[in-house]
Amino acid sequence: MASIKFYLTRPEAKEQTSIFFLLNYGMYEIVSGKKKYIPLKYYTDVSIRPEYWNAKTGRARETKSFPQHPEFNERLNGIEHTALSLLNKLRNEGITLTNDILKKDIDRIYNKDINDITEVAPAGIELMQYVEHFIKASNKKESTKKSYKVVQRDLTEYQQKRKVKLSFQKIDIDFYNDFVKFLKSKDYAPNTIGTRIKILKTFLSNADEAGLPVSRDYTKRAFAKPREETESIYLNETELTAMYSLNLERAPKLDRVRDLFLIGAYTGLRFSDLSQLNKDNIGDGMISIRTIKTGAVVKIPVHTRVGAILGKYEGSLPKVPSNQKFNEYIKEVAKCAGIEEPARIEKTQGNLTSKTTESKCNMVTAHTARRSFATNAYLNDIPSISIMKITGHK
Fold first, then answer.
1. 110-157: pLDDT as tens digits
2. Which of 240, 243, 247, 261 has its CA 20 to 30 A from that of 148?
3. Is 362 helix (H, G, I), strand (E, B) or coil?
4. Beta carbons within 10 angstroms of residue 41's beta carbon
5. Mean pLDDT: which of 240-254, 287-301, 303-317 is highest?
């Protein structure tokens, strides 16, 4: 059982002294035939005058002479919760733990040199002002910042619909339940709602670490990221050939979407990367492109059908429609290609599981192309490490 205890660096000091913690998680070495436990010693950026410190509890004394003790102790609670959660996450991922590994990952959260926020939040900042500040100050990629802005928009719309002004203290379990209900009313899928909640918790945890008066409800298990198991299919070579062979000259929208889908199915590129693919990315029979999501450069052999499609558009692909329109059109293409094999669907929402049978053409989406590439490559005995290099997975 892992445990954390906080200590003063200089307990006899007359002025403020920094605080460190010892994280015991079972790490030990054998000395003279006996186990010697080696906890992680980690120095925080929190400090206090020793006269206000309770060494027995490892927290600030609850005294009128130190009126900020509730907020101070909540800060330490937050550090403890974060460190233990990180420890459990690493264990669940099967990582062999060492003090160096733990320190490195905790540093990613608390080390100012690599923290997500590059500027200090102004004093007295309110929740929605902080969200705006967070997005502007974040050093994340533009695609990530775009997802942050979507949550900002949802929070703004929630305030307007509910006629309330959100504050740090109002983001509690009651808000969580009502916000999820609000997102469901917008017909968002559980996984989409889950992503919104995950980003909201990112806002709150950073605000918490900045010492802002955040309700601690966001750390509770009930403040969870809703999700459901996604039913994903892939198209085999026969089905892709049926799609490729379609004559769609009289339906130019379907024709363009079919071509884009096939490029995804033979390259493994994400939907977001199709728009930047052109003849400049091709040389010596290989596609070389820097992916938007990860920034990694991937190299992909040019399939003959990809070469033919690029030639059809003289090296520059048509404009990629919105994800919603793409998914709508590709289902119609799949139906025209006769991809109507029945598929079993099992969906889980909350504690309820439903099983239905759906025609395969109605399940095809933009992501099906990437999944088809990976699955067909695997079934053709291409080594997994090679597939991962092409798709950009780690």
1. 754 334 554 556 667 889 999 998 888 887 778 788 899 999 999 999
2. 261
3. helix
4. 12
5. 240-254
pTM: 0.47
d(CA 89, CA 105): 11
Residue type, 143: S
Q: Please calculate the CA angle 99-393-291 and round it to the nearest 5 degrees.
A: 115
CA 349/CA 394 separation, integer angstroms: 29
pLDDT in tens, 77-99: 989 988 898 888 888 878 788 88
Alpha carbon of 319 to those of 261, 274, 302, 323, 367: distances in Å? 13, 9, 21, 12, 18
Torsional sign, CA 68, 70, 73, 79: negative
Structural contact between residues 126 and 167, judged by C-beta atoms closer than 8 angstroms: yes
Token pair listed for 302: 């040019």
User: Secondary structure of the chain: what % helix, strand, coil (to 5)?
Assistant: 50, 15, 35
At 113 the pLDDT is 39
How many angstroms separate the Cα of 173 from the Cα of each of 16, 164, 341? 36, 16, 44
Which helix (H) or strand (E) segment is 160 a member of?
A: helix 142-162
Tokens 């608390």: give the residue. Answer: 110
CA distance 107 to 171: 27
pLDDT tens digits, 57-67:
999 999 888 88
CB-CB contact of 218 with 201 (8 Å): yes
